[in-house]
Amino acid sequence: MMKFPGYSLISSFTPFHCIILKKQRRLSALDLSSNNPTKSRRTLSVCATKQQLHNINTQIEMGGQQYRPPLFSVAPMMEWTDTHYRTVARIISKHAWLYTEMLAAETIVYQQENLDRFLAFPSEQHPIVLQIGGNNLDNIAKATQLANAYGYDEINLNCGCPSAKVAGHGCFGVRLMLDPKFVGEAMSVIAANTDVPVSVKCRIGVDDHDSYNELCDFIYKVSSLSPTKHFVIHSRKALLNGISPADNRRIPPLKYEYYYALLRDFPDLRFTINGGIDCVDEVNAALREGAHGVMVGRAAFNNLWSTLAHVDSAVYGVPNSGLTRRKVLEQYQVYGDAVLGTYGNNRPNIRELIKG
């Protein structure tokens, strides 16, 4: 279940009627502690620099709309960042950039009669990025064309997923990093079939292909062969020797120095840092170090309220809205009651709306 520290929920006899049982304890909105020895931390502070405040006040045009820049984004997470999660995330933060789960290009192409289930989202979820995966240029092109009608603000290609199903049997995800020429071609195909910006999410390497020079070669070739100007960098390499996706988020060490070196060596490109950053304090620390943007993953699901509640005020400089967890639940209840069973066959059901 998506976590709102301090409250427990049950569903009553009426559809998706969330009842607050009791307030268990008073918690701070932000958990600033970290015991991960793999992180090389510098002094952390919530205060933004003058340059960051300048960036905050600069709106960018994406998909015909103007939004604040993606200083903070929520990572695409399979089976987690579906439209229901994104709805409650958007209730909490109005300015964080949200990513879909990765959708295989083949799924989009072969589900043309059922696209709303996979691609539709409420307009309130903007700014939102569609992440697709695949290794067939024709299907990638068709999937991009089909997605255009839904009005995403950016399309991102997954070159970072290490799961056996994706990078192994599927031969895409992080395995694509071993073929930067193909990735450049795929990004050109995506860009040719959409009017919105395109981006790549990748790791810093794969197995023994983990030198900084090899990462630079990947970035250079993709950006030279395509209009790609934005890369989301998960600052760990991927191991494709059978370890689980969870272990791939834990065992390979974080190498933030690779990310910051990319900022120096590719000044005309935009890079978002991902991996091991768990709270707003750490987000602002990365921004002060020069990061163009920061992507937060599991923390934004496992600790939804404490991770997102202060993004708008602490990262974007927007006055606090006075939102409370109770108000979030009340608004999400309205959404839940409205969407229950709309896909037929009792889908989505209550379990899907409060899964976790």
Automatic annotation (TrEMBL):
<dbReference type="InterPro" id="IPR001269">
    <property type="entry name" value="DUS_fam"/>
</dbReference>
<feature type="binding site">
    <location>
        <begin position="274"/>
        <end position="276"/>
    </location>
    <ligand>
        <name>FMN</name>
    </ligand>
</feature>
<dbReference type="InterPro" id="IPR013785">
    <property type="entry name" value="Aldolase_TIM"/>
</dbReference>
<keyword id="KW-0288">FMN</keyword>
<dbReference type="GO" id="GO:0017150">
    <property type="term" value="F:tRNA dihydrouridine synthase activity"/>
</dbReference>
<protein>
    <recommendedName>
        <fullName>tRNA-dihydrouridine synthase</fullName>
        <ecNumber>1.3.1.-</ecNumber>
    </recommendedName>
</protein>
<feature type="binding site">
    <location>
        <begin position="297"/>
        <end position="298"/>
    </location>
    <ligand>
        <name>FMN</name>
    </ligand>
</feature>
<feature type="binding site">
    <location>
        <position position="131"/>
    </location>
    <ligand>
        <name>FMN</name>
    </ligand>
</feature>
<keyword id="KW-0547">Nucleotide-binding</keyword>
<keyword id="KW-0521">NADP</keyword>
<feature type="binding site">
    <location>
        <position position="201"/>
    </location>
    <ligand>
        <name>FMN</name>
    </ligand>
</feature>
<keyword id="KW-0694">RNA-binding</keyword>
<keyword id="KW-0820">tRNA-binding</keyword>
<feature type="binding site">
    <location>
        <begin position="76"/>
        <end position="78"/>
    </location>
    <ligand>
        <name>FMN</name>
    </ligand>
</feature>
<comment type="similarity">
    <text>Belongs to the dus family.</text>
</comment>
<dbReference type="Pfam" id="PF01207">
    <property type="entry name" value="Dus"/>
</dbReference>
<keyword id="KW-0819">tRNA processing</keyword>
<keyword id="KW-0560">Oxidoreductase</keyword>
<comment type="function">
    <text>Catalyzes the synthesis of dihydrouridine, a modified base found in the D-loop of most tRNAs.</text>
</comment>
<keyword id="KW-0285">Flavoprotein</keyword>
<dbReference type="GO" id="GO:0050660">
    <property type="term" value="F:flavin adenine dinucleotide binding"/>
</dbReference>
<dbReference type="InterPro" id="IPR035587">
    <property type="entry name" value="DUS-like_FMN-bd"/>
</dbReference>
<feature type="binding site">
    <location>
        <position position="234"/>
    </location>
    <ligand>
        <name>FMN</name>
    </ligand>
</feature>
<dbReference type="GO" id="GO:0000049">
    <property type="term" value="F:tRNA binding"/>
</dbReference>
<feature type="active site" description="Proton donor">
    <location>
        <position position="161"/>
    </location>
</feature>
<dbReference type="InterPro" id="IPR004653">
    <property type="entry name" value="DusA"/>
</dbReference>
<feature type="domain" description="DUS-like FMN-binding">
    <location>
        <begin position="74"/>
        <end position="305"/>
    </location>
</feature>
